Amino acid sequence: MRGLYFEEFEVGRVYRHPFTRTVTESDNVLFTSLTMNTQPLHLDHEFAKGTIHGRPLFNSLFTLALVGGFHVLELTFGTTLGNLGYDKVEFPHPVFHGDTLRGETTILDKRESRSRTDSGIVWFEHRGYNQDDTLVMRCTRVGLMARSPEHGGSNPRVLGDDTPVATAPVTSEEQRA
After folding, report:
1. Which CATH number does the domain housing residue 21 bear?
2. Alpha-carbon distance 71 to 77, whole Å?
3. pLDDT value of residue 128
4. Alpha-carbon distance 24 to 50, whole Å?
5. What is the pTM of this model?
6. What is the CA radius of gyration of the chain?
7. Range of the structural domain that residue 46 is part of
8. Are strands 119-129 and 100-112 parallel, antiparallel or unpaired?
9. For residue range 83-132, what is the model confidence (pLDDT) as tens digits?
10. Cα gap 131→22, rounded to integer Å
């Protein structure tokens, strides 16, 4: 089982990832503490009562990491050579304890690497939605992706299985829903 090779990415294709995850107070406290983010808005219920949200707000970097992880098994598992950057990271709606998140990815662009013959560059837009289908996170990411062995790639196969995991693309009707 593997993600997609550079050649398999189609510009404009949308993937609605099959994973969902309900985020918990423990997730927020652990992530916030591990990353040394002492913002009381994430950790202190009494402090948070006095804010515009009235309750603790989920750490946005956890949201970015979680939504950014939803695509891995389906699109980049074993075929990514590294992240080249993140751009336009936005959090248009807050996430709270108990929200259930899901993700979608659109392939924005791609090109062959100018310095490496075994890889190409792919631009992704990752979006996270809560249980009400409200957009809670959006970012653009640039990844260095392995080319297939037939196209000069040398990335080893994952677990000896060269079957891509990617699901069917979202149809135009599904995008409007």
Report:
1. 3.10.129.10
2. 9
3. 98
4. 21
5. 0.86
6. 18
7. 4-174
8. antiparallel
9. 999 999 999 999 999 999 999 999 999 999 999 888 999 999 999 999 99
10. 9
Mean pLDDT lowest among 30-39, 145-154, 160-169: 160-169
**Exposed, middle or buried: residue 126 (CB in 10 Å: 0-12, 13-18, 19+)?**
buried
Average pLDDT score, the chain: 89
Task: Domain count for the chain, please give it.
Answer: 1
> Residue 101: what pLDDT?
98
Token pair of 122, please? 């792919």
- HSE of 110 in the Cβ direction (CA atoms, 13 Å)? 22
Instruction: Report yes or no: 45 and 29 within 8 Å, Cβ to Cβ.
Output: no
Residue type, 109: D
What does the DSSP assignment read for the chain?
-B---GGG--TT-EEEEEEEEE--HHHHHHHHHHTT---HHHH-HHHHHTSSSSSPPPPHHHHHHHHHHHTIIIIITTTEEEEEEEEEEE--S---TT-EEEEEEEEEEEEE-SS-TTEEEEEEEEEEE-TT--EEEEEEEEEEEEPPGGGT--PPPSTT---B---PPPPHHHHH-
Say if CB 13 and CB 112 are below 8 A apart: no
**Matching residue, tokens 């074993």:** 78
